Amino acid sequence: MTRLLVCRHGQTLWNATGRIQGQTDIDLDEVGRAQAEQAAVLLAAQRPDVLVASDLRRAQDTAAAVAGTTGLPVHTDPRLRERGYGPWEGRTDDELAETYPEEFRRWRAGQPVRVDGVEDLADVSKRMTEGLLAAAERAPGGTVLVITHGGAARRGIGALLGWPDEIVHTLGALSNCHWSELRSGRYGWRLHGHNLGT
Question: Which Pfam families does UniProt cross-reference here (predicted)?
Answer without folding.
Answer: His_Phos_1
